[in-house]
Design brief:
The complex is a heterodimer of chains A (385) and B (444). Helices cover 32% and strands 40% of the residues of chain A. Chain A is an alpha+beta fold and 385 residues long. In chain A, helix 5 (72-90) packs antiparallel against helix 6 and helix 6 packs antiparallel against helix 8. Chain B has a seven-stranded antiparallel β-sheet with strand order 3-4-5-9-8-7-6, with helices on both faces. Chain B has a seven-stranded antiparallel β-sheet with strand order 12-13-14-18-17-16-15. In chain B, strands 2-10 form a two-stranded antiparallel sheet.
Chain lengths: 385, 444
């Protein structure tokens, strides 16, 4: 047993030197990540620098890439292991160390909580017009290709294909669909224009639907925080009878495009990815209060009606800026408004690890208080003697 | 050998833990492990909670925890290659956006009554746009609006040449001003520009920013050997960008320049969507968490004191107004009275008077004429400049001549405007009440 704790890899893992190295890398990471936001935007930086294993660099023009820095996940994991190992070798329980132990346990919890948040938290948005009822939220930066079978009079069957599968290309099939979809081209961000504007443009891949009269050109993905990509894809539909044609789909085109296979009509639409809920919200009224005589906003609030058939919930809720609605693990914050105060935008956050940072910070604070007051009382006692 | 040692460790734990749970397992034998006791300098073993612990319970002993952690680490070290690859695999998987991200999902939803499209519809074939209106010159031939086009016109030249006018709206910024101007430059085989300032001439139309663009190709573009030209107007309006464009042969488009500019000036944005969006408001909507500007113009109405003349009624406040009234005259018509305060002199008295003159279709005047025509009145200790403007002819067919009666006060870096607007007869009947109101007005 002692041989393990004295073995050299273990000692390295538990060493303070490793902690310092990790924290140093962390500082570099935060610094570089902050600089990179200029060119990449905050969302890409978060994914590439902090929610990643390594930071890669590829020489200009090259297709390969080399890891140059450990990413946020590696640093977090190493720090966690370092802290655990340090405790394993040096752990001794005594009354004097209660504060330090609590403090360290708080830091461990913070690290674990952040990892869980990175893995499982999801932020989406709900845009509801006054009087509208919505049972889903949308991911503002994620798209899906939805194939909707509306032949049943009571419900729509939706097959949702996520962006990653489209980006991968190739043939996509699903047992509920009597046909396959072949992604002929996927453009993460694109510009659409009417073909009539430029007669010399090369012919479109699309043979059916609205895509025949549209020219699509690829543009770099947006890095701005307040912009979203307009993705586009050319999708060929192949049934047992052969190819039905190629359609252009894009989240810039808000109408679905119908096609028929085996006397079933399907609708094809690319849109922001939807997450359906077991309940629905109806916006009764959005209020945008201003200070009297000025245009300065005083308060934003949404009066919504919550309907949950499964749980029999049927009530009105007022969501205002620091007073979100918490229901079934989701938190609905007032995030924005549109259409001259007739539309509310709610940020919908689902984070199973939501409580961990609070508990962790509480533990750290408690540990610090205990530690410092112990020192203080000891000092005062000594002086009084 | 190491593996066996490790397995033994686990077996030890498995064997001991249940027993320890049976007796409170975290409580040891009352004495701390020897190691820590000796560190105290060979003193008597320290007792934790020497007083006040329930009988039968020893002090806390966490050696079992140490045991657990050590065994875990030991396993990690023994199975290093396997453990590292497992850890890497977990990290790699987690580098994605969470579990189940690559999977196709199938679900059933109740029939959706109407397609709820959060963005502005681009492929909307409805033709006329809901928010933006324009007036096309009569010489232009209206074409059916198709696909992206909200409006489409054909302009015929003298020698059979034609130019195409299109009105298109894209949700959000459609790439921004520069990208769109470069797209047009590309259509004319012109080199792209990188400076946004060169992209277009900013002007105002109906109170909104508009970028006017005039581009001519350097080489002939058509079979007949003529150069091509594009005139464009780009409007970023509340979550959408509107493009007005005329494209065609240089001579024809050049001759239509004035007409096209008049066409741009005719564009009206319906009340309601009148929040001008920056060129990059692609997400759409306004953020309620955006920093609020400091309340420089915090409500001052609280300290505004006045007494209401007979026949005046308070009206709900609107932005800018500190007080708002309607003054009814015996003939049943109403005049509007407002009290507005702005920092400093808000452009000067002359600029404001000329703005009001414009409202009643009177030509602007200069400083001297203002000094001659305006009168000064003393009321409640303040020195007001008072102007009385009557339109030369009825402005609206249903109404008589319009009249503006206004008092301006510049005091302590703040300008105050008390203004009555209405039909001439109504304002005339209320003039004495207006002066009474000034006398009763307490300005903080």
């Amino acid at each position: 047993m002692s041989s393990i704790s004295q073995s050299s890899p273990f000692r390295t893992l538990a060493s303070l030197r490793l902690t310092v190295v990790c924290l140093g890398f962390g500082m570099v990471l935060v610094f570089l990540g902050t600089l990179a936001q200029v060119n990449l935007g905050i969302h890409a930086v978060q994914a590439r620098y902090f929610q990643s294993v390594f930071i890669f660099w590829s020489p200009p023009g090259a297709h390969w890439r080399i890891p140059i820095l450990p990413g946020g996940y590696v640093l977090g994991t190493v720090l966690l292991l370092n802290l655990l190992a340090a405790h394993a070798t040096r752990f001794q329980f005594s009354r004097k160390k209660v504060g330090i132990i609590l403090l360290h346990f708080g830091v461990i919890l913070l690290l674990v909580g952040q990892l869980l948040t990175g893995l499982f938290a999801r932020e989406t948005q709900m845009r509801i017009d006054e009087g509208q009822t919505l049972g889903y939220s949308e991911a503002p930066r994620e798209i899906e290709l939805a194939v909707i079978d509306g032949s049943d009079p009571n419900f729509d069957q939706v097959v949702s294909i996520p962006e990653r599968l489209l980006a991968r290309g190739g043939t996509i099939q699903n047992q509920t669909l009597p046909f396959t979809l072949r992604v002929r081209q996927f453009l993460p961000n694109s510009r659409l224009e009417m073909r009539s504007q430029d007669q010399q443009a090369p012919p479109s891949l699309a043979t059916n639907g609205v895509g025949t009269s549209i020219i699509v050109s690829e543009i770099p993905r947006t890095v701005k925080d307040d912009e979203r990509d307009m993705s586009a894809a050319f999708v060929e539909i192949n049934s047992a009878q052969g190819s039905l044609g190629t359609w252009l789909v894009s989240n810039a085109v808000s109408e679905s495009q119908p096609f028929t296979v085996n006397n079933h009509t399907y609708n094809l639409i690319m849109r922001q990815r939807r997450y359906y809920k077991q309940f629905a919200l109806t916006l009764l009224h959005f209020a945008h209060d201003r200070y009297a005589g000025t245009d300065i906003p005083k308060n934003f609030s949404s009066r919504v009606h919550l309907t949950d058939l499964e749980r029999g919930e049927n009530r009105e809720v007022l969501i205002s800026m620091n007073d979100p609605l918490r229901y079934r693990g989701f938190t609905f914050y007032q995030a924005g408004f549109d259409k001259n105060d007739k539309t509310t935008i709610l940020q919908v956050v689902r984070n199973p690890a939501m409580l961990l940072p609070y508990i962790a910070c509480g533990l750290v604070a408690l540990g610090l208080i205990i530690q410092f007051s112990m020192h203080l009382f000891g000092f005062v006692k000594k002086r009084n003697q | 050998m190491r593996v066996r040692k490790c397995i033994n460790q686990y077996l030890w734990l498995l064997y001991h833990l249940p027993f320890r749970v049976g007796k409170p397992f975290f409580l040891g034998n009352g004495i701390l492990p020897q190691k820590s006791a000796t560190r105290g300098g060979g003193k008597q073993p320290k007792r934790l909670f020497a007083r006040g612990l329930p009988p039968g319970c020893g002090p806390l002993d966490f050696s079992w925890l140490r045991q657990v952690v050590r065994s875990a680490l030991k396993t990690f070290l023994v199975f290093r290659p396997a453990a590292i690859s497992l850890l890497t695999a977990i990290l790699l998987v987690s580098a994605g956006c969470g579990p189940g991200d690559d999977k196709i999902t199938v679900y059933r939803i109740p029939k959706e009554t109407q397609p709820t499209a959060p963005q502005e519809s681009v492929a909307d074939n409805s033709g006329a746009a809901p928010d933006v209106h324009w007036k096309a010159p009569s010489a232009w031939e209206e074409q059916p609006a198709t696909g992206f086009r909200k409006g489409s016109f054909l302009v015929r030249g003298a020698n059979g040449e034609t130019a195409d006018v299109s009105v298109i709206s894209f949700p959000a910024t459609a790439g921004g001003l520069l990208a769109n101007v470069n797209r047009w430059r590309d259509q004319l085989k012109l080199a792209p520009i990188s400076n946004e300032a060169e992209a277009g001439t900013p002007t105002k139309v109906d109170g909104h920013d508009m970028f006017f663009v005039d581009l001519v190709s350097e080489q002939p573009m058509s079979a007949s050997g003529s150069k091509s030209r594009i005139l464009g107007g780009i409007f970023p309006i509340s979550g959408a960008t509107w493009f007005f464009k005329m494209a065609g042969p240089d001579e024809l488009v050049g001759s239509q320049r004035e007409t096209f500019q008049a066409f741009l000036q005719s564009v009206q944005v319906a009340e309601g969507s009148a929040i001008p969006a920056p060129m990059s408001a692609n997400i759409g909507g306004n953020n309620t968490n955006a920093p609020t500007p400091p309340p420089l113009e915090a409500p001052k109405s609280a300290s505004l004191g006045y007494s209401l003349p007979a026949g005046w009624k308070e009206k709900p406040l609107s932005p800018m107004r500190l007080a708002s009234f309607s003054a009814a005259s015996p003939n049943g018509k109403e005049a509007d009275v407002s009290v507005v305060s702005l920092p400093a002199t808000a452009g000067g008295d002359l600029a404001n008077v000329n703005r009001w003159r414009g409202q009643v279709k009177l030509p602007p005047i200069d400083e001297d004429t203002l000094a001659k025509s305006a009168q000064r009145i003393q009321a409640n200790g303040h020195d007001y400049l008072m102007v009385d403007l009557v339109s030369d002819a009825p402005i609206d067919e249903q109404q008589g001549k319009q009249r503006i009666l206004a008092a301006i006060l510049d005091e302590n870096g703040q300008a105050w405007f008390i203004k009555m607007t209405g039909e001439e007869a109504t304002v005339d009947a209320q003039k004495s009440a207006f002066v009474d109101f000034l006398h009763g007005l307490k300005i903080p």
